[in-house]
Write a structure and sequence with these properties.
91 residues; mainly alpha
């Protein structure tokens, strides 16, 4: 159903991967900067913003009644990628 990422990675996949990787990087950064409360607050706001962008992208592709980009396959892929990232970060 999908083309392998080694052959071609879509723009949406590249965008979401970068957003979610940056979000994970911000969370790890927060662990190391526990003493700097201002920096922690800034990093937390940024990672929450990135999560929101990823969620909006999911809703934009999964909502078939809005007429934006109704593609449940993309939405399902986003959910699957999110699960994989959760497993990586919780391990």
């Amino acid at each position: 159903m999908y083309i392998s990422q080694t052959i071609h990675k879509s723009l949406l996949a590249k965008m979401l991967t970068e957003i979610l990787d940056t979000c994970i990087m911000m969370k790890y950064g927060m662990k190391y900067d526990k003493n700097d409360k201002v920096l922690q607050k800034l990093q937390n706001s940024r990672q929450l913003t990135l999560k929101l962008i990823a969620n909006v992208t999911y809703r934009y592709t999964s909502a078939s009644h809005t007429g934006h980009i109704p593609c449940t396959e993309i939405a399902d892929s986003i959910v699957q990628t999110g699960r994989e990232i959760l497993k990586k970060t919780s391990a």
